[in-house]
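Subject: sequence -> structure tokens, single chain

Hey, anyone have a minute? Need the predicted structure for the following. Not urgent.
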Amino acid sequence: MPTRRGRRILRRPCHRSLVGDALLARGVDVVDIVSATSARSHTLRPFAQVEGTRVWYPPEADDASA
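Reply:
Had a minute. Here:
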């Protein structure tokens, strides 16, 4: 069963992207709703790391020094 989710205007990772990535890792089809008339298949964030069904995100360079 496909899962649909809304989209925020901001490009930062948000809980919707995190949920979408987690669902993809578990084999669920996820559809991103772009507008009232447009949708597209969700893709993993490029920096996402998947180990089995676990999805994690390495720290950004600025975060590593904090």
